[in-house]
Amino acid sequence: MKVTVDQEMCCGAGSCVLAAPEVFDQRDEDGIVVLLDAEPAAGCREAVREAAAICPASAITVRED
Amino acid sequence: MSQNDPVVRLPLPTEGPLDPPAEWERLRARCPVATVELPSGDTGALLTRYDHVKALLSDPRFSRPLPGDDSARVAPEDGGGVATRNDTALSVAFKGAEHQRWRRHVGRYFTAKRMTALRPGMTRTAEALVAEMVAGGAPADLKAALGFPLPVSVICDLLGAPVRDRDRFSYWSDAFLNIDRYTRAETEAAEAEFSAYMTELIAAKRAAPGEDLISTLIEESRAEGEGLTDPELRDTGMSLLVAGHETTANMIGKMVAMLLADRTRWERLVADPSLVRTAVDEVLRADANLGGFGVRRFLTEDFEFDGTVVPTGTTVFCGLSAANRDERTFADAGELDLGRSPNPHLTFGAGPHSCLGQALARTELQVVLDVLLRTLPSLELAVPVAELERLAGLAVGGLREVPVRW
Ligand code: HEM
Ligand code: SF4
């Protein structure tokens, strides 16, 4: 699985961090998403898919391989 | 939007207090871009399908109606709170790059991590409020005992506003959001008082700064050309107090009512509190009473929804709860599935304006539910569901009271 985020589109809502804290964080200075792990381990892939689905800004893309 | 379709009048009627309007299903199926008439007599377009609502809200070209837009009025000429009118100049209601700048300044206070850090304090506040409710004896109104005081004290703490002024905030925020309870003169007076209050609070923070959001925003604005201007600061404070208060308070009441309406739901959560996170989002999705008008967008360009072109100058009402029940997106959309995941509901909107406080609201709702399940597992409604009374007119939607016993 390969994850990318679009910081321009992100509105800083933090839903991704609530869903998958191992993979997403938010910058302290403006709340914009930071990707911690672009190739998450099997154990948190379900949570990453959830984060991508619920992101209100559609700023998270997941490519399954 | 063909000429022959009957005009739909907002707000739509419902059967029971927690039920969705039956009309939504017909609209989604046959008339997903419907012409609607508002209490003011003006008309607009109503969207009820998930994909349409999400597409419009995600488009950064459009925003809420701004002063100067020739948009549809919701309330009749002589009434309606600030939030229902279009001629207000709250300086945070802008769009595009300016809006993004504001969002990023304020957004940093509402990150998921910060909200998680507030959790222990919120839990203590919720526990104390529940203890007080229990001491007062059953039945009690859960909305008054817990729903209102918790979000107010949380947002006051965050902003650095005194909690003892909470009755005034409640009045001001009601006057902002109500459609028909106050006259135009009353809402204008409330706006002026609230604005003066916030100006004074900012002056006080400037003189004696604290750790709170307002003090920090002031500090950042000291450097020339940086941070927020004074009117922006004032309007930010006012918007956050209003936005962070009434919506969440009503949602706490509705959440408990929805979960107790069928007590097997409550029992399932008592048996497995790990469902709290998904249960909260499912309740947010299923809430059919977010206010009768939905979130508005003013079209400054034509917009096409699956072949239907809606012209420039139209005010579009995005039916968030109608979209949340769209079978095209949600399996068994009419059922409450406490473990639903993922749950991409639109209750907090979508796109660049999607709710800034959603991590806060989710945390508050989760804390309330956690505390109630743990301390009052025997909780039940003290009246039949049909006797719960919808609050009419409120732009955010709620129940008048949520009577409970334990
Ligand atoms: C359950 C409770 C809540 C619900 C259902 C809710 C819902 C919404 C919705 C639907 C929007 C989008 C409006 C639009 O697109 O025009 C919004 C925006 C907003 N909400 Fe919330 N909200 C809640 C709680 C909160 C809280 C606790 C705060 C906190 C401080 C807050 C602050 C805001 C702000 C500032 C905006 C404007 C964002 C912008 O325009 O960029 N909300 N909310
Ligand atoms: S959920 Fe989406 S909008 Fe929210 S912080 Fe994460 S990437 Fe940004």
Supply Rg of chain A: 10 Å
Task: Give the assembly state of these chains.
Answer: heterodimer
What would the average pLDDT of chain B be, to the nearest integer?
Answer: 89
CATH topology of chain B: Cytochrome p450
- Total of domains of chain B: 1
- CATH architectural category of chain B: Orthogonal Bundle
Order of helices and strands of chain B: EHEEHHHEHHHHHHHHHEEEEHHEE
CATH architecture call of chain A:
2-Layer Sandwich
Tally the helices of chain B.
15
Give the helix proportion of chain A (percent range). 10-25%
Which small-molecule species are bound to the chains here? protoporphyrin IX containing FE, iron/sulfur cluster
Interface with most residues: A-B, 23 and 29 residues
Strand order of the largest sheet of chain B: 1-2-3-8-5
Function (chain A): Ferredoxins are iron-sulfur proteins that transfer electrons in a wide variety of metabolic reactions.
InterPro entries (chain A): 3Fe4S_ferredoxin, 4Fe4S_Fe-S-bd, Fe-S_cluster_ET
Organism (chain A): Streptomyces doudnae
Keywords (chain A): 3Fe-4S, Electron transport, Iron, Iron-sulfur, Metal-binding, Transport
Question: How would you explain this protein's 3D organization?
Answer:
The complex is a heterodimer of chains A (about 60) and B (about 400). The model of chain A has no long low-confidence stretch (mean pLDDT about 95). The longest helix of chain A has 10 residues, at about 45-55. Chain A has two helices and four strands. Chain A has helices at about 15-20, 45-55, and strands at about 1-5, 25, 35, 60-65. With about 60 residues, chain A is of the alpha+beta class. Chain A has a single domain (about 1-65), classed as 2-Layer Sandwich (Alpha-Beta Plaits), CATH 3.30.70.20. Helices cover about 25% and strands about 20% of the residues of chain A. Chain A is globular. Chain B has about 400 residues and is an alpha+beta fold. Chain B has a single domain (about 10-405), classed as Cytochrome p450. Helix content of chain B is about 45%, strand content about 10%. Chain B has 15 helices and ten strands. In chain B, the strands form three sheets. Chain B has a five-stranded mixed beta sheet with strand order 1-2-3-8-5. A three-stranded antiparallel beta sheet of chain B has the order 4-10-9. In chain B, helix 4 (about 110-135) crosses helix 6 and helix 7 (about 165-175) packs across helix 8. Mean pLDDT of chain B is about 90; it is low at about 85-90. The interface of A and B includes residues 54 and 57 of A. Protoporphyrin IX containing FE binds near residues 103 and 155 of chain B.
